[in-house]
Amino acid sequence: MSLEEQTSTEYGSWERPSAFYNKYIKWVIYGLIVVFVVWSMWDIRISFARFVAGIDAAVDLVQNMVPPELTPRKRELLVEGLVESINMSIVATVIGILISLPVGFLAAENLMPSSVYYASRGVISISRSFHELIVAIVAVKAVGFGPLAGVIALSFKTIGFFGKLLAEELEDIDSGQLDAIRAVGGSRFQVLLYGVLPQVLPRIVGLSIYRWDINIRHSTVVGIVGAGGIGVTLLNSFQKYDYDFSLTIILAIVAIVLVGEAVSAIVRRRVQ
Amino acid sequence: MLTVSDLHKTYETGDEALGGVSMEVSGNEIVAIVGPSGAGKSTLIRCINRLTEPTAGEVWLDDTEITGLDTAELRKARRDMGMIFQEFNLVERLTVMENVLSGRLGYTSNWKALRRKFAGEDVQRAYEILDRVGLGGYDNSRADELSGGQRQRVGIARAVIQRPKILLVDEPTSSLDPETSRSVMELLTDIATDDDIPVLINIHEIDLAIDYADRIVGLSDGEIVFEGPPEALDEEGRDVIYRGGESRVGRAAPDETTDSLTTEKRE
Amino acid sequence: MAAESDDREWRRFSPTQRALRALGVGLAVAAFVVSWRALDINYEYAATAPRETYDLLSRMYPPDLGYVTEILPPLIETIHISILGTAFAVLISLPIAFLAAENTSPNRATYYLGKFIVSFTRSVNVIIWALIFVVLFGSGALAGVLAIAVRSIGFTAKLIAEGIEEIDHGQVEAIRATGASPFQVLMYAIAPQIKPAFVGVSTYRWDINVRASTIIGFVGAGGIGVALTTSINSFAWDNVLTILIAILGVVVFSEVFSAYMRRKVR
User: Which end of chain C is more exposed for a tag (fewer CB within 10 A), N or C?
Assistant: First the structure.
C-alpha cells in the first residue's frame, strides 16, 4: 500500500495533508474568510483617517480625565451609586437563587420526566441567551427606572446560570445513594433530603458565591440603561462631559470588581 | 571527529554534574556512556550541542570549537549534530513527514519553512529514510498516532536527514520495551556503518551497551572512571562505575555477592 | 454505662459547626434584608411589576415579521462587529500572551506588564469600553469593534498564555537541536502545540462577543442594539419581540458553531 501511495505522489514532492478535503477547498475557504473580513471592514467603515482622528480625541480625553476628580459632593454620588449596586447584587443573588433552585431540579434529566425537563431547559436557555443589558432595558420599560429593574434583570440572568449548573450537578449525582434511601422506604421528599441534597449542597454554596461575584460586575453596568446602581452615575458623567469624574467611577468599579473576585475566590476555597 | 576536553558543568543550584570530562569519538564507532543515574550522562550529551551550557572546557567537532560559537554560528554547527531523545520529543501535532523534514530546518529559509516548502531533494530523502527506518507509508500520520517504537524511529529519521557528522543519543531505549529497544539499537548501529558517522549513546541498560557498543565509557559523579572495549568491562570495571571503586568481591560474603549481582541484572 | 448510653444524643453537626452554619445563613438573610430596605424600592411598582410585564408581553405578541427585512442590516453589522472585534483581540493578545506566560516572558517586568494588561482589560465591562470609544470615534460600529476588541484582550491573552505555559519543552528543544532559527522554532515547535488552545479560545470568545455586540448599540456603538433601543423608545413592542427572536437565533448559531470548532481542532 505504501509503495503505491508513493508512486502516485511524485517522489520528491510532498504536501501537508489538509484539514479540509483538498488544498483547493482550503484556499477557497481562506479566500472567503479574507473577503468576509474585508467586507466587515468596509461595512463598518474602518479607515486610517478615523483611527487618527480617534487617537487625537484620545489624547484630549485622557487630558480631560486625568487627574480623576473626587470632590465631597462627587464622593457622595460615587458611594451612593456603589452601595446601590452592591445592594442590588445581594438582593438579586438571593432572589435569583431561590427561583433557580426549583428550576434547576426541574431541569435535571435524571430526576424529572422529559416534558418538564425540556420546559425548564427552555427557560434556562432563554435566560442565558440574552445579555444582561437587554433584560435590563426591557425590565426598565416594564417597571420604570431604578434599582427594581436592575434586581429583576440580574435575578433573571441568575436563573439561567445557576439553574444550568445546578441541573448539571444533579445529573452527575450518584444514583446508588438515592436507591439506598428508597430501599429503606423513604418518601420522595426524604429521598431529596437524604439522597440528593447532601451531594449537591457544597456546590450550591460555592456557586451562589460565584454568582454573587458575577452579579456585582453586572450591577455596575445595568445602570447604563437606567436600571439603577453606579452605572447611572457613570452614564450621567459621560453625558455631562464630566470625564474626570468618569475616570474616578471607572477606577472605583474596577476596584470593586477585583475585590469581589478576590473575596469570592477566598470564600469558595474555604467552603469546598 | 568529536573532541571533548576538560568539560565542566555546575548548575545554578550548585550541583556539579561534570567535573572535567575529556574524550574523543571518531570514525564510525558506537560509544556508549554508562553510569548510575545522576552521574552526569545526560548533561554530558547535552553540553556537546549546548542545549545545556557547559561552565568550562572545550568541545570540538572537526575544526570547529562548539563552545566558542555565538548563537548564529551555534545554530549552523547544530546542523552537523543529530540528536535523539529519550522521550522522542516529536512535535506531536505535526505529521511524521513534517517531523522528519524539520531536521532540514537549518538549511531552509524561514519563509519556505512557514509554507512547508522543502527542497525536492530533502523530501525525496525523507521518503527514503522513512522506508529505511521501516515507516514507509506513515508520512501523513500524525506523530501522536504512533507507538513508542515508531516515534523513536521518526526521531532517528529526523536526526539522520540532517546528514550529521555525529549522532548524539540520549537514553534512546528507556521509554521502550526490551524488544523494541534492541531493534532501535540495531538501527542505530546500521546507521553508523552505512552513513559512516560516529554515534555517542548515553544508556543505562548495560547489557545493551555491551552488545552494541564498540567502546564503553563509564561515568560516575561527573568523571570518567572507565574506558575500554565491552570485553574489558569485567566485574571490577562495573564496581568502579556503579560503586565508586569499592569491590564487593573483596569485602562481602558470597551469598551477598549473588544478591547484588541480581540487582545489577535488573538494572 | 447503661444510663449514659440512654441519654446519648446524636447530632448532625458539632455545636461550633451549627453555630457557624447558623451564622452563615443569618448573615445572608441580614444582608438581603438590609440591601432590600436600602434599595428603597417602591412597593407599588414592585406589586404592579407582574401585571406590567404581562401587559408588555401581550403587546409584544405576535412579533412583527415584516420588520425582519429592516433588522437584517443591523443584524449583519452585529456579526461583523463580533468577528472583527474578536479578530483584533486575538491578534493583539498573541504578543501579550507571550509576555504573560511565565516560560516565554523575557523578564519579570514584562511578565507583570502582561498580567496587568490582562486583568485591567478584563475588569472593565464592554459597555463601559463602548462609552469611552464612542467619545473617541463617534457613534457607530467602529467604536463597537474596538470596545469588543479591548475587552476581549485580557480573556484571550490569559487563556493563550496558559496554553503556552503548558507546552512540552522537549519538543522545542528537539527542533532547536536541529539548528533551526528562533522563528522556525516558533513555527514548528511552539505554534503546533498552542494551536488547539488558540482556536478554542478564539471561537469561544467569539461566541461571547456575539452576545456582547447585541448590546453595545445601547450607547451608540452600532449593531442590533441601536435598532432595539429605537423600537423600545417608540414602544414598537412587536418589533422588539422580532429583534429578540433574531438575537436568540444568532446567539444559538454562534454557540453551536463555536462548540463544533472546538471539537474539530484538537
Answer: N
